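To make the argument concrete, we let one protein speak, a sequence paired with a row of structure tokens, as a model reads it:
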Amino acid sequence: MIGGPGPASLGFGAAPLGNLFRPISDDDARAAVDAAWMAGVRYFDTAPFYGLGLSESRLGEALADRPRDSFVLSTKVGRRLLEDSRTSVDGLIDGQWALPSGRNWVRDYSRDGVLKTLEESLQRLACDRIDVVYLHDPDDHLDQVEREAAPMLAELRDQGVISAFGVGTSDWRAAARLVGSTDIDGVMIAGRWTLLDRSAAPLLECAREAGVWVVAAGPFNSGLLSRPWPEDGARFEYSPAGTALVGLARDLALACRRHGVELPDAAIQFATRTEGIVAVVAGIASAAEAVADEAAFRREIPSGLWDELDRIVRDHRGDGK
């Protein structure tokens, strides 16, 4: 299972292996996984949606020679892939994936859809089991999830087919509802419990009360916090960040420098300070990123820095909390 006694672990987010915004080669994808493995990473997360199957295929190939019991693997259901010719816009499918045309997807949170999606994921991942299955972005389909998808995944867990299931989303309200209405084991909250965005605090509280573990994904908020000095036009939630957000990120970066560390160090470690967080999953596109993220995750952060960063965020937010 993810986490366990002790501090949160670092997880490998495999969305970039699906050519997120830019193409990477098969060799570079393999090198990223190899470097993460050498750095001690043992949790790998992917989804059919990431590159419309490409991320799963590349991750499965890279992990094929690793002992299956030595790592935790998660993927997602809710977007079922189709073979369907289509045209990319500006070279990107769905505005995110640098892929050739010929693939499509549909939302499908039905019982049959869950089973079919998992079957196809197992084929692409070339493995005999998936440890954790997340309901992927079910925000506008919660009634069907509660009626069909969640009970199906609970059956698979109880039968030992999967070890656990949960919800993976950036909508903390949707996740909180499923914590209360289903038998999920965990939540992956993306970009809503970060150095910059603390909006998932109510979700963390209800998860603690329900005994549900939490994985914090997207610690760099799609790129804005990934460099020592945030650049103009850096992405926040997959779109160019506004002036105010870039200004806040730069104030955080300056505070980090005053304490002898860099912004990515604090960003990737922020969630580890929170009770109930079992892992932080960062998207990794190259061997260099894997090495840098692992080093940032282990770097010592002066205790006084956290208070200063919290104050900066409160001041920008203007609510005094």
